[in-house]
Structures are given as structure tokens and as C-alpha cells.
């Protein structure tokens, strides 16, 4: 059984190759030039463009890209699962379902199941990694399907951004919700609710924010000893490391893994973003 993933997962090309995943990269447009995520543009280039007051735009994977991958799955007679980026943040899931039906006209035996994960960044990446590990335990579709549905009910996303205007301008957050986090050192805390980005609260300074995050995680899971917590950041490793130290001390997780937010997601968050992904009980 093979997994199909897209740019919404924030997995690196190295991880995608190591896990032997089918990959549907998005496009990123800067100054009218479209570049393919991971292959032709890095997150550093995206963040530099934002600092230069340019406004990167993202394009979901094309129907042609999907048709090529889905046809390959069919001709190889593989069983595949596509864990797609949240439908509340992108049209990728809906497009994939449409393309699947088109491919099935020529390949009626196409064995592809598409999930709207309602997840993003390493929330989706964590799910993909865990499903890949579970496939080493069982090749039963029924068991994998139940595993995925169980994890989708438990995955949690918490994050903060330096400036909410990037999320608002990209349509990922309503302008009415984009309260000014840059004023008076106010730090917004957001999460993903039913696949969409939703503000939770505002805090005065990073220290109060980090402790609020720890308290929220403790309230949702009282045993992280077997849990790998994933963190991503956009040009803010120092703050991510501070939060990691607090989590290691307060939660005693199995491990905490920090990585960069990928080019597509950072196009919408801007720099100064720190995100945390874990399972609630």
C-alpha cells in the first residue's frame, strides 16, 4: 500500500523519498513566476520575498499532476491512500476526488482512497509518518482506515504568528479575526478547528504564551511518554527551542522534533511563526 501526499504536509523531499511516497507539489508564484515547491524554491526564498514586501501566491497541485500520479497507481495495480491537505484551506481534496473519477473511466480498477485530513503542516506530516509506520504492522485496509480515522479525531495544531495579516490577506483567516498581534507585544494563539484556522486567545509576551500552550497540552493529554511532538517554525528557531525546552521539562515526551515550515505554508504565515502538533487523548 502506497501513500500519496502533497505540499500541505511540510514533509521535505528527503522524507518523501525515504518513505517512498507519491508527491503532488504545489506551485508558488512570486513576481509572476511560478516555481514548483521543494524542487525550485525554498522556504528561505519565500520568507526573503515577504521581507521585500512581495506577496507569494500558492497554486494547488494541478489536475495533470494528479492524473499522472493516479494513472501510475492504476497501471502499477497498487493500492494507495491519499492523505490530502485540509479542504478548508485548499481545493486540493475536491480536485483530487474529481480527477480520481476521471482516471477511473479509463482504469475502473483504480484502488485509491482519498481522505480530507482537515490537517496542515506537520499536523498532516505527523499523520503521514504514523500511517507509514502502521503499514509496517498491517496491510489490512480496514485496520489502516480505522487507524487514520482515529488519528484524525485526535490530531491537534497549536500555533502563533508574528503578524496575522499574512493569513488574512491569503484568505486563510477572516480579516475580522486578524487582530493586531504586533501591538504591545501581543502574541496570538490559534488552532485548527474542522480544518480551518481559528484564533483562541491573545497573550502579552512569548513567556505567557508558551506557558499557556503547555497548560493546554496537559489538559488534553496527561501522558506524552510515548508521543513524538512535532514543531515547525518560520525563521524563529530561537523561540521554538525555548518552547521545546519547556515541553521537555513539563511533559516528558518521547521526543520533540523541530523542522522548518515549508515554502507553501510559509507563503501564508510569514516569518515569526511557531507551531506545535500532537495527539490529544
TrEMBL record:
Which keywords does this chain's UniProt record carry? Lipid-binding
**SUPFAM superfamilies, from UniProt?**
DAK1/DegV-like
Tell me the Gene3D superfamilies matching this sequence. Answer: 3.30.1180.10, 3.40.50.10170
Keyword Cell cycle: yes or no?
Answer: no
| PANTHER family membership | DEGV DOMAIN-CONTAINING PROTEIN DR_1986-RELATED, DEGV DOMAIN-CONTAINING PROTEIN YITS
Please identify the protein, giving its name as recorded. Answer: DegV family protein
Q: What does this protein do?
A: May bind long-chain fatty acids, such as palmitate, and may play a role in lipid transport or fatty acid metabolism.
- Domain of life of the organism in this record? Bacteria
PROSITE patterns in the record, alphabetically?
DEGV
> Can you name one GO molecular function term for this protein?
lipid binding
Amino acid at each position: 500500500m502506497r501513500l500519496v501526499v502533497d505540499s500541505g504536509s511540510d514533509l521535505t523531499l528527503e522524507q518523501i523519498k525515504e518513505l517512498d511516497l507519491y508527491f503532488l507539489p504545489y506551485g508558488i508564484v512570486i513576481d509572476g513566476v511560478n516555481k514548483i515547491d521543494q524542487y525550485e524554491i525554498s522556504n528561505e526564498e519565500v520568507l526573503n520575498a515577504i521581507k521585500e514586501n512581495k506577496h507569494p501566491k500558492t497554486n494547488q497541485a494541478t489536475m495533470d499532476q494528479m492524473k499522472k500520479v493516479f494513472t501510475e497507481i492504476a497501471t502499477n495495480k497498487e493500492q494507495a491512500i491519499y492523505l490530502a491537505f485540509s479542504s478548508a484551506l485548499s481545493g486540493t481534496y475536491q480536485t483530487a476526488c474529481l480527477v480520481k473519477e476521471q482516471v477511473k473511466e479509463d482504469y475502473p480498477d483504480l484502488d485509491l482512497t482519498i481522505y480530507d485530513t482537515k490537517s496542515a503542516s506537520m499536523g498532516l506530516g505527523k499523520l503521514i509518518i504514523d500511517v507509514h509506520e502502521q503499514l509496517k504492522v498491517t496491510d489490512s485496509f480496514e485496520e489502516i482506515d480505522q487507524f487514520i480515522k482515529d488519528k484524525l479525531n485526535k490530531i491537534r495544531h497549536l500555533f502563533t504568528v508574528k503578524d496575522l495579516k499574512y493569513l488574512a490577506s491569503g484568505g486563510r483567516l477572516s480579516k475580522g479575526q486578524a487582530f493586531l498581534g504586533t501591538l504591545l507585544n501581543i502574541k496570538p494563539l490559534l488552532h485548527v478547528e474542522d480544518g480551518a484556522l481559528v484564533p483562541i486567545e491573545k497573550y502579552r509576551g512569548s513567556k505567557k504564551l508558551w506557558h499557556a500552550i503547555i497548560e493546554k497540552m496537559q489538559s488534553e493529554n496527561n501522558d506524552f511518554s510515548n508521543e513524538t511532538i512535532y514543531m515547525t517554525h518560520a525563521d524563529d528557531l530561537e523561540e521554538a527551542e525555548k518552547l521545546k525546552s519547556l515541553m521537555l521539562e513539563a511533559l516528558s515526551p518521547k521526543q520533540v522534533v523541530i523542522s522548518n515550515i515549508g515554502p507553501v505554508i510559509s507563503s501564508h504565515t510569514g516569518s515569526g511563526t511557531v507551531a506545535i502538533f500532537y495527539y490529544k487523548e
